[in-house]
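To fix ideas, we reproduce below one chain and its tokenised fold.
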Amino acid sequence: MFTEEDIRQIEERGSSVQTVKGQVEQFRKGFPWLDIKAPATPGNGICVLDEAQAEAAAAYYDSATIAGKCKFVPASGAASRMFKDLFSGLETLKSGQDVAPDSPAARFVASIKKFAFYDESLFGEPEDTAECRKSVLSKTLTADGLDYGSKPKGVLKFHRYADGETRTAFAEHLVEAQNYMRNADGSANLVVTISPEHKQLFEAAYAEVKEAYEKKYGVKYNIRFTFQDKATDTVAVDTENRPFRTDDGRLLFRPAGHGALIHNLNNIEEEVVSIKNIDNVANERLLPITAKYKKVLLGKAVELRDKIFGYLNELDAVTGANFKMFEPAPYIPGYNPIGADEVFKSEQCQLLCNDIEEFLRTELCIEMPYAGDCKTRAINLRKKLNRPIRVCGMVKNQGEPGGGPFIIREKDGSTSLQILESVQINKENPSAMAALSSATHFNPVDIVCCLHDYKGNSFDLLDHVDNDAGFISSKSWQGRELKALELPGLWNGAMSDWNTMFVEVPLETFNPVKVVLDLLRPAHQ
């Protein structure tokens, strides 16, 4: 399948021939559909808190002991999709035609003074002419002006304030982090995933505000910029599932989606991590409600952590060292496994297992299959408990594109809460489509994670990925059709084997900028 030159190309990327062969085989066999039991809805998978409960969760977070906090911001993408409609309008204007009055391009130019990046010396006063529209679009998108069409979203100016200050999306994440993600020493840690070619832009954007923000908010920032590992890129194939080759005969590799970022997340040492996309920020006047509900999610996460740790410690106390029989572990001096089965059959152990099963069912929508014997039951319950934790904010569905919360049946027969993209749902399965149509909520990527186990060790997150939860998408390269392989998404299959809780949060906390005209929404003005 591969030439010596192919092998050299593969190995130079940090990958292996075996890995790439496995990717090609994945194209050929496809991915299995997930077994959807029901959409997660209020009272059945989505926790809806009243005001008192929300306040209690936030207070729990404020008083919790946490081994380090960090904000994780995926920000590697360029803003080309944000300006797709404007590029189309510019091409129309360059051809000698004008754009339609109600087109995104015309609306953008007519509102140019409302955008934070408007500069009269660059754009002048907007006029209702085709020539003005072409000029404004060109100066926004190309190197003739701001060159926003080739820059990452994180360094674009999103907001302008009454005192004249303008802030990039990245700057707004800094402001958010100092509010709800401070460590005990007053520092705020951020890990921002970027593309290598954008590092200088982000470093400049950070240097521009660091000193002023640290003084204004009394915070010390610790910023780490990380890159998506090229070794996680996946090979593309043609329509016949053969490795796709460029005009010079080389294999074509493509970034494997945000699922590759599980490797970046796995390198974080802090215990509690907040995940939020780079474009989901709002004007600072909305920070009070944003921070409040982020603290609610953080509180629910550490509360869930403490409950799970309590059960694991109880299991250890009831069963002694007997679980070591079923885990790779060094020899324990003085440990004698004789009579181990009797420990699992004890009334104390069985009552504890009953409590754990009820907790999993009511709190996390996990229904355990029949275990057959006491020992297997206890071992399975311990395995379910001893996993990374995530608490995900969910907003009421307003028709935004993206994933949603569902209850699925796992391969081991248990149920779990999962975030699914529409591409993961079998459109030919009536029950799956019924679940999709009756879904009430949407995933805004507002997630809090607990990454340490009850012994204080970091989980290896790569052990908790469902490799069968990726998907295949249709793309093109220089007009030629190809198929691309997306790794299990960061908040989909990459977190499939996590303990998961969904919590409803207000729609006001979700303010994404997917297209440039979204910046005209009230949250950004």
Remarks:
- The first strand starts at residue 35 and ends at 39.
- Residues 325-338 have pLDDT under 50 and may be disordered.
- The chain has two domains: 4-79+153-307+385-524, 81-150.
